[in-house]
Amino acid sequence: MKPMIVDNIPFKPNLAYLYTHLHVPSRPAQRQAFDALAAQAAEVARPKALYGLTVIEDHGDDFIVVEKIRFKSRVLAVNVKSLHRVFPFVVTCGMELVEWADGLSGMLERFYADALKLAALRTATRRLEKEIRHQFDTGRISQMCPGSLSDWPLDQQRPLFDLLGDTQGAVGVTLKSSMLMIPDKSESGFYFQNDSGFASCQLCPVKDCPSRKSPFVEHLYEQKYRK
């Protein structure tokens, strides 16, 4: 696999959304202070992504093999059962934004900066998805990330990063011994063609999750994924 880099991704924070999401007070002075912080983030941010195209070499009830590396997950195996390819990826807000945020001292500023890092990650994710759909004519795609479900635990990050190669040199992402990533606002996993709009959140019953992208679908696991 020859990984490809996606960079030069403009970051333009959606101020109206962030005002509401972060409960930024409507008083002019506080809005102006937030706007100035967001402008700084937009100037320094360099979100980016690394991805590749891999062929599924083997497939079982609860695993797939790509590039001779085995990934064990019943949900992943079912989702790609009829496919011959997947797209491993890592996407990040970028170390530039992390270093800027680390230089802030105020508690409220750091809270806002964390949200801006997440917004930059989401911007990069949308750009990566567009790139994959355009380059490989996939139609609709979905993603799965190690650790998002107990079915595909976080320790599967290691073989995934082995597959992606030099992620630090390519996009500045490092995998720690805890299997968490630096920068913290990074995601990794597989993209795959999926017309039904699968999201791991559909299988996760945790309530009030700030990262939820789709509602929990009761009985979905039993109906589609139970052996």
In short:
With 227 residues, the protein is an alpha+beta fold. The protein contains 8 helices and 10 strands.
Topology of helices and strands:
Elements: E1 4-6, H1 15-21, H2 28-44, E2 48-51, E3 54-59, E4 63-66, E5 69-72, H3 74-79, E6 85-92, H4 95-102, H5 107-136, E7 141-144, H6 157-164, H7 167-171, E8 174-175, E9 181-182, E10 186-193, H8 220-225
Antiparallel strand pairs: 1-2, 2-6, 3-4, 3-6, 4-5, 6-10, 7-10, 8-9
Helix pairs in contact: 2-5, 4-5
Question: Sheet bearing the most strands, described?
Answer: 8 strands, antiparallel
Order of helices and strands: EHHEEEEHEHHEHHEEEH
Question: Helical percent range?
Answer: 25-40%
Total individual domains: 1
CATH architecture: 3-Layer(aba) Sandwich
CATH topology: NADH Oxidase
How widely separated are the two ends?
A: 32 Å
Strand content: 15-25%
Regions with little confidence, pLDDT below 50 for 5+ residues: none
User: Tell me, what's the shape?
Assistant: globular
Q: What is the typical, i.e. mean, pLDDT?
A: 93
How would you classify the helix and strand content by structural class?
A: alpha+beta
The value of Rg in angstroms is 19 Å
Description:
Strands 1, 2, 3, 4, 5, 6, 7 and 10 form an eight-stranded antiparallel beta sheet that branches. A two-stranded antiparallel ribbon has the order 8-9. By secondary structure, the protein is an alpha+beta fold. Helix 2 packs across helix 5 and helix 4 runs antiparallel to helix 5. It is built from eight helices and ten strands. The chain has a single domain, classed as NADH Oxidase (3-Layer(aba) Sandwich), CATH 3.40.109. It is globular and about 60 Å long.
